[in-house]
Every structure is written in C-alpha cells, then in structure tokens.
Amino acid sequence: MTDLIHPPKPRPGDRVAVLSPAAGLPEVLPLPHELGLRRLTEQYGLVPVEYPTTRKLGASPEARAADLHAAFADPGIAAVVATIGGDDQITLLPHLDDALLRAHPKPFFGFSDNTNLLMRLWNLGVVGYHGASVMTQFGRPGAVHPVTDASVRAALFTPGPYELPRPTETNDVERPWEDPRTFDSAPVMEPAGDWRWHRADRVAEGRSWGGCLEVLAQLLMAGGEIAPPEAYEGGVLFLETSELLPTADEVFRVLRAMGERGLLGRFGAVLVGRARAWSFDAPHDAPARAAYREAQRTAVLRALDAYAPGAVVVLDVDLGHTDPQVVIPYGGTVRVDGPARRITVTY
C-alpha cells in the first residue's frame, strides 16, 4: 500500500474547482447548481471555479479527465468539489494520469458515482471525502441542513477527529429541481431512528473504504480498482445505496460476492448508510419506505453474519444519499467504539 497523503485543506478565500466528473447535470438543472455556488461563496468563503465540462451534459470521458487534471495541477486550486453524481464515471478511470493526481493531491469531495474517483485516489494513497456535492448538499432547498453544515465545515477546514452526530430528523423525499418554488423552503423532515449497533462489545479503528454499493458492484466486475483482500485488513468499510433503490436480494448478492472474494472478512467494522427509500420513479409512502429499509437491514446483516462475523456493524448512519448527510473521509481513520456507541472520523 502506498504511503497515505492527507491533502492540505482549503481556507476561506481560496479558489476551489467545481467539476462534473460524472454527469454535467448543471446544464439542464441550473437552479440547485447556482444556489450551491452562491453558498460556497457566501457561507463558506470559497471562490468556486468552473471548467469547460462543468455544465456540459454528455461530455466525453477524455474531456472530463482533462478538466480534472487541470484542476489538480493548478497550484491556485485548493480543493475539488463534484457538482453531483451520475452513471458512467467508470469510463473516466482509464484516462486518468495517476502520477499527476498523486503529485498534486487535493481534497476531493463527492459521492454516489464519484465512488469511482474516490477509490482511485485511495489506491494512490490520497485521502478523499465521500459527501458534500454542490447540487445536493450545498444546493439543498431552503438551507444547508445544520448537521450537514457542521460536518462539511469540519471536513473542509479542520484537521483531526470529528465525532459523527446522531440526527434527530431525516428525509429522502424530493421535489422537482426544475421548479423554482422547490427552493423557497426546506424539505419536510420526519423523525430519524437511532443508529442500530450489532456486535457492539468491541472497538475497531482503521482506514476507511467503500462507498455507493451500486458503483462498488460495477468496480467489482471491472476488477481493476479492487486491491488484493489483504490491502483492506483492519479497515472500516462504509456502504450506502442510491435512488436506484436496489432490492434487498440485490444488496445481499453484492455483499455475498464481496464475501466470496475475501473482502468482507478483512474489515474490523462496517458502517451502513440510512437507506434511501424514495425516488420519482418509486414514490413510496411512509410504510413502504419503512418496509424497504427493514428488508435492506436484514439483507445486510445476513451477509455480514456469514462473511464478517467479527466486525462491529452500525446501521442507519447518515452517510451517502440521505438528508442530512455527514461526510466520511475516504481513506482517513475511522474509530467505531461499540461500548461507547460513538463513531469518530479523522478529517
């Protein structure tokens, strides 16, 4: 494993690259993008810098890689923030200049399809940040959620440990981004259940790895980004699912494949995000959302009991495709303290 690099953090007043290495959705959905840019400037004191493909839907992998290289190589850029996720970032990976990325490390923020880039940076020994995209967290209707805001500020500006909070409210029901009225008020929240702990009689601490399960499934099939199982020994695995709403059986099969590959048993702890249970294509009511989440929890525990019986497991952590969202360092140290019921990340 390469030596670990913690990229220098930006400071208020610094320029940050705003890129679309997955999908250039700002071209067709400008409202949350523009709002997110304003908040980066007004609330966080940063200067967003867009690139040729930031607002270009359907840009080629080569063009998106060129923008990424330009942002990382520019000494005047202090961090790189993804606008949103997408579907085909895996096609970007063959065009990346690994030597350039490692020689000019920058904090990279993104999640969902950006799991591809985060994993490549992990393989290069560069710590990234799973979370905090422009259109979703910074461009949230009404206001950035206070829980998200505190985590983002810590990840952006503050080194050292950060104890993850337990939000009291949650939401995954969206309103159309095409409608300006969507951004006049914050989403309607509902009570959030507490984290669910399993085998919480121990403490595990290690380097984090994981991301969006649907993207991990693609990377497992492609194979190139997945290291030998021993590279993950003693690490902390974190997983979450997207608005694609995979079935419980699909989630189990991906985890089973990871287990058969010898990956799951290497991790000392596993964090599982609060499952997204609503989409415009599947607008579930509250009972259906609760049933979907419970079926996914059962599937996850079934796989982990079989393949990672020694790991501490925490379900319903507010990471990934959820609101509020906490940022998880990708490759940073995560401490999962079962007896104290605490999760501490190092940004």
TrEMBL record:
Which regions span the lipid bilayer?
none
Q: Which UniProt keywords apply?
A: Hydrolase
- State the species of origin: Streptomyces termitum
Region Disordered: start-end pairs: 161-185
Q: Which family does it belong to?
A: Belongs to the peptidase S66 family.
Q: One matching Pfam family, short form?
A: Peptidase_S66C
UniProt domain LD-carboxypeptidase C-terminal: residue ranges: 205-336
Under the heading CDD domains, the entry gives: Peptidase_S66_mccF_like
Protein name, UniProt field: LD-carboxypeptidase
Is Cytoplasm tagged as a keyword? Answer: no
Q: Name one GO molecular function term.
A: hydrolase activity
